[in-house]
Amino acid sequence: MTGWTEEGLVRAWRALVHQEAGEDWRFVHLCGMGEVSVEAGCHFPAGREALIVSFPGAWPVNPARLPDGKGFDVACIEGQKVFAGRTAIALIRRAEGSPEIFAVMVVDVLRMLEATQAAHRDVMDAFLERVREWQAFMARTHRPLSPDAQVGLLGELWTLRLLMDSPLGPGALDCWQGPLRAAQDFHVRGGAIEVKSTVRTGAFLARINSIEQLDSYRSPMFLCAFRLEESIDGTSLVELVNAMRQRFAEAGTHRAFEALLMVMGYLDEHAPLYGRILAVKEARAFPSEGAMPRLTRATLPAAVRSATYVLDLDALETPSMGLPELLKAFGLY
């Protein structure tokens, strides 16, 4: 993996913003992935940031096949010598598009391209599929987070803070992959953590959103469960977000954090609705292995393509561990 970061891309785009001799485009080569070439670009006269992915062979692309939506444009680049004999598809930020979310999207697309290359999948189809997913997100109407979504985000941010307090430091932000539609919320080194949170009394019923959520090649893998309760000794979602903003600002990675918050649907204009004070009553981590009840791809018929299910965590007979032991399992202490 190349280790793409939003800050690195922003630096590349800044180096391209000075237009010369009436040119329409400026480019800088980022990398090659097999026969696929990737460039950062700047499109004039507005100086808008772009990512260009080019494929071998010059062939016409049906514009109807290219995704369309809000936030950024998708277009074929023609007449540029650097792409002679190739088919170049550009993602270009629109003027109204968030620069922070665009940078996060580009990093996600680059990481997806690397994974696709390693898996020997059809790179162009995977590329366009990922772009369509982002276009669908950009077109979404951003309403205030539901109470359940607030509790879910609070649990993920608590986990992120836990990882930040480990030797990972601010680099823990790279572990937060849930906003980028990874199967699990956090990818820690070679392993993964899926976070579930509840404020409900009674049985802890965790909705598992896919077969892959608890069945992955990543190891070790844990289901981390937070049971929350209202308490004056707790914190609100707004307070936790602001405290973490300060920490990431001090580390110079606040742009990426802000973009991930927006992807999760957290907007400051809704902050007055997020004042509920909650504290962690109980935190447990269950190893997703061995006898832990869960759906696994290997035990399901091939005809079952996807599934969601509900797991009663209080009914599990699988031994659980606390958060310090969870960190040790990843070699963080």
Give your account of this protein's structure.
It comes from Mesorhizobium neociceri. InterPro entries: DUF4420. This is PD-(D/E)XK motif protein. The strands form three sheets. Strands 1-2-3-5-4 form a five-stranded antiparallel β-sheet, with helices on one face. The protein is globular. Helix content is 29%, strand content 25%. The protein has two domains: 6-138, no CATH class; 147-329, no CATH class. The two termini are 25 Å apart. It has 333 residues and is of the alpha+beta class.
Strand content: 25-35%
Output the structural class.
alpha+beta
Kindly state the mean pLDDT as a whole number? 90
Biggest pleated-sheet summary = 5 strands, antiparallel
Order of SSEs: HEEEEEHHHEEEEHHEEH
Helix content: 25-40%
CA gyration radius, whole angstroms: 22 Å
Give the terminus-to-terminus CA distance.
25 Å
What's the β-strand tally? 11
The general outline is globular
Low-confidence regions = none
What is the topology, as strand order, of the major beta sheet? 1-2-3-5-4
Specify the number of helices.
7
Count of distinct structural domains: 2
Offer a quick outline of the entry.
The protein is α+β, with helices and mostly antiparallel strands.
